[in-house]
Amino acid sequence: MLCTQPYISCGACPKSQPCLLPSTGVIKVYSEDNTSRAVEVPSDITARDICQLFILKNHCVDDHSWTLFEQIPHLSIERTIEDHESVMEVQSGWGMDSHCCLYFRKNYAKYEFFKKPLDFFPEHMVSISSETNGIMNHSQLIQTFLSSSSCPEIHGFLHAKEHGRKSWKKFYFVLRRSGLYFSNKGTSKEPRHLQFIAEFSDSDVYTLLSAKKVYGAPTDYGFCVKASKSSSARDLKLLCADDEQTRTCWVTAMRLFKYGMQLYQNFIQPYQKQKSSPMRSISENSLVAIDFSGHKTRVIENPSEALSVAVEEGLSWRRKSCHRLSSHGSPSASQSSMSSIAIHMAQPWFHSKLSREEAQKLITQQGLVDGVFLVRDSQSNPRTFVLSLCHTQKIKHFQIVPKRI
Fold it and tell me: Which keywords are on file for this protein (predicted)?
């Protein structure tokens, strides 16, 4: 998975004062379809750098939602690697036989809480300092998490797996900047009743991939706190929420308490780059748009015309793809009629024979953000489709019956 090389001299400096170039390593990154690609990268590369690299290599549209995930199969857990994190440092914490891996996929909810914090932090789960008078708008709420002088608090009931036992028990938990606590006396927050569970300077929060199956959790909305240098299941602080929104609230708050303003900098960085319009590389500046449609080729100098030609070329390619998908060797007379039927098969949102449970899992992986959707074949009603989408952080399914004309 990782092959490091020592620091090397560039040869331009005197032997007495060698300048050192950063070492490199080879990382292996998986896509959603489980295909992988190995690339050689510098040792100081960040998760955002990796995402940008794979966006270019895979010709993806950069909508700022691409994310690098760390997955630990033997523990059945995964987490978002924050954009500023060193990928080599993450890999250095893996055991030799752990089979840990990196995944490159979309996560629409990665920074959605900066845009709609009130949706991520329900009022009944958040306590704030008295200076705010208990009334907050979106910007004020997020500022309380980013400011080191304010004292926001997340509280509520969670299921916890008792150490050394298979059973889970429900406790009242409190999350503060100092760490995670549970109350050993109902919902009391008195210091003598709060028992310390974990802090986050040397720990990360992960979601459980199979909470019920692997850990016997009461629901599928499990997560855990894992020490950065630990790879043992015995050291995991296993927790479980009653619903997805509650889990999202806890996990998001833990990320904010650990990284604070750094997360906000990660969020605004792509937009700052767009506004500053930095100078492009030599290879980018050397690209030109050329029209091959006429008898003679010509350079397209008008940017609007170049964009229009590119869009038309993309649509033409899609039509040809659908044509190939639908033909299956049929005579040309039937191909045009079949194309209109099979056009959905070429769309990225169509997932054919996907079950309801698999659809829910896939949408959850992309992030529970309103508008995330996919279309699939109905398993209960042949020749119909199902629209699976996220609305108000809940996944809903609607049957689509094609109308024959």
Answer: Receptor
Question: Strand, helix or coil at 34?
Answer: coil
List, in order of start, the domains of the chain with CATH numbers.
Answer: 8-106 (3.10.20.90), 112-269 (2.30.29.30), 313-343 (no CATH), 348-405 (3.30.505.10)
Candidates 316, 71, 98; CA nearest to 207 is: 71
Q: What tokens were used for 157?
A: 């009931």
Residue 328 — left, alpha, or beta (φ > 0 → left; ψ -120 to 50 → alpha)?
Answer: left
3 state SS of 382: coil
- Taking CA atoms, 248 is separated from 125, 197, 262, 305, in Å, by 12, 19, 19, 44
Element (H, E) at 197: strand 194-198
Contact 153, 126 (CB under 8 A): yes
**Chain centre distance of CA 188:** 35
3-state secondary structure of 159: strand
Angle, helices 244-259 vs 261-276, to 10°: value is 80
What pLDDT, in 10s, does the model give residues 45-79?
999 999 999 999 888 888 889 999 999 999 999 99
> What is the rounded average pLDDT of the residues 4-30?
57
- Quote the CA–CA distance of 305 and 298 in Å, as a whole number: 12
User: Length of the chain in residues, anyone?
Assistant: 405
What integer pLDDT is reported at residue 348 of this predicted model?
Answer: 77
Beta bridge partners, 28, equal: 38
